[in-house]
Amino acid sequence: MNKPLGVLVGIVVIAGALNTAGAWYTGTKLEGVLQTSIQEANKELASQLQGTPTHGSIELVSLDRHLYSSTANYRVKMSDDSAGPGAQPVELLFVDHIEHGPLPWSRIKTFKWMPVMATSNYSLVKTPFTAKWFAAAKEQSPLQGQVTLAYNRAVEGHMELLPLEMALDANSSLSFSGMSMEGQSDAEGQNFKGKGYMDHFKLNAVFPNRPPLLVELNGLTAASDLNKSEFGFFLGQNFLKLSESQITFGDRQSVLKLNNFEYSGSTSAKGQLLSGRLDYKVGDVTLNNNPVGTAQLVMSASSLDIPAMQALFQIYQTKFQPKADGTLPARELTLAEQTQLQTQLETLLAAKPKMAVEKLSVKTPNGESEFNLAVALAQPAALDQPPVEVTKQLLTSLDAKLQLSKPMIADLAGVQAQLAGQTDPQALAQVGTMTSDMVSNLAVGTGLAKVEGTNILATLNYAAGQVDFNGQKMSLEDFITQMTMRFNAPMQ
């Protein structure tokens, strides 16, 4: 044997011996790691589902251990309290083929040479409950994926929902392109990044005594970059975009298209104060190929005391959350709960929270309307003062502005008339004009707004006990009196 070949063989033998030793070590540690991960997953699942009627759990059913690999079986159970008495929980079974580290073959063949504890290759198991799902995926496991566990217990992986084609009944069908998702998190699940993509989804539903419904979604992208806060929930950024959606509905089979819908949300905390921002955009809406318009909504909040909000939410969950049938529970707060409610509310207000509708805009072919609102709050000296005094101390400032376009109102009234079956252009124009004039007259008649050109305008500013309402300055008491008189008296 020549020297270079001998060196190469020696390296291969040593690498093989090290991999065998590592695989043996991984195999002996694997069950403990899996049980710990499942316990943490169940704890996190319970935390995220708290306050909802849904419950879930994950269970390691069995683990068959070998030198280089192991096979695990899991059971996932989900139940819903709102499903009513006697409803059976949903049960899914998964099989997991686990390659032991430090060098699993699935990573070697993709040139990933960093040593890891294990690589998990999981898939949904066919059961009577999932049989139709398997049939729709041409008898392949419709949900499968791979997860790699590093020695520091950091996790990265991807999941695939396979394409589906299935008949829901004799006339209804579903078509799904499949969806791919990937993500990564650290050992404790404190930091998570993920993204996913779906090409298309199509549901064609035909009902016995109702018009058929066709729903189509195309180009769905989602992404998250989150960090778990000390308060038990995640903060960070979320993003979702839907390139195109279309709904065909009604007796006339109207076609409503919505293009370029985007959602982005961000939350952060400084100490125990929460800040957040939500942004919704609709790029283009059409009805039966006729343009309807675009829209945007931006909301924000800051200086929200997190422990106080959590305590108030807990009271809501236990006392005021609607039942499964939608009715409210007939429960009264105890004296201790009333005291706690007041204490937490005062704590929340002491942080001087601010909330805003930074932008609410609707743009149609002939007009654009916009609304803005900013509110700042503070803690009153006492809540048992007269209402006006509480309001003065509670409301630090308020700034609101509305610009309502009469042509936009006419455009939307025309759309509503089209949905009702009206097709004559002259009649649609008449409906639009009548509606915009009615709104304009109502706003002016109640004294809530004024008309300038083609816009209905209203402004409201408040600070330090003084109100500026549409340019008219007055005290808060006078403003309340005026509003009371205007809404109690018949409109002239």
Q: Output the radius of gyration.
A: 30 Å
Low-pLDDT sequence parts: 1-25
Beta strand %: 35-45%
Number of alpha- plus pi-helical segments: 9
Count the beta strands: 22
Largest sheet: 22 strands, antiparallel
- What is the global morphology? globular
Descriptive notes:
- The chain is α+β, with helices and mostly antiparallel strands.
- The chain has three domains: 1-162, no CATH class; 166-270, no CATH class; 309-492, no CATH class.
- Helix content is 29%, strand content 45%.
- It has a 22-stranded antiparallel beta sheet that branches.
- A hairpin with a 5-residue loop joins strand 5 (143-149) and strand 6 (155-161).
- The longest helix is centred in the N-terminal third of the chain and has 47 residues, at 3-49.
- The termini are far apart.
Summarize the structure.
With 492 residues, the protein is α+β, with helices and mostly antiparallel strands. The protein has helices spanning 3-49, 105-108, 131-136, 306-320, 335-350, 387-394, 406-419, 425-445, 476-488, and strands at residues 54-65, 69-80, 90-100, 118-124, 143-149, 155-161, 164-167, 173-176, 179-185, 191-205, 213-228, 234-249, 254-270, 273-287, 290-305, 354-364, 367-377, 395-405, 450-452, 455-463, 466-469, 472-475. A hairpin with a 3-residue loop joins strand 1 and strand 2 (69-80).
Write the layout of secondary structure elements.
Blueprint lengths: L2 H47 L4 E12 L3 E12 L9 E11 L4 H4 L9 E7 L6 H6 L6 E7 L5 E7 L2 E4 L5 E4 L2 E7 L5 E15 L7 E16 L5 E16 L4 E17 L2 E15 L2 E16 H15 L14 H16 L3 E11 L2 E11 L9 H8 E11 H14 L5 H21 L4 E3 L2 E9 L2 E4 L2 E4 H13 L4
Antiparallel strand pairs: 1-2, 2-3, 3-4, 4-5, 5-6, 6-9, 7-8, 8-10, 9-10, 10-11, 11-12, 12-13, 13-14, 14-15, 15-16, 16-17, 17-18, 18-20, 19-20, 20-21, 21-22
Helix pairs in contact: 4-5, 7-8
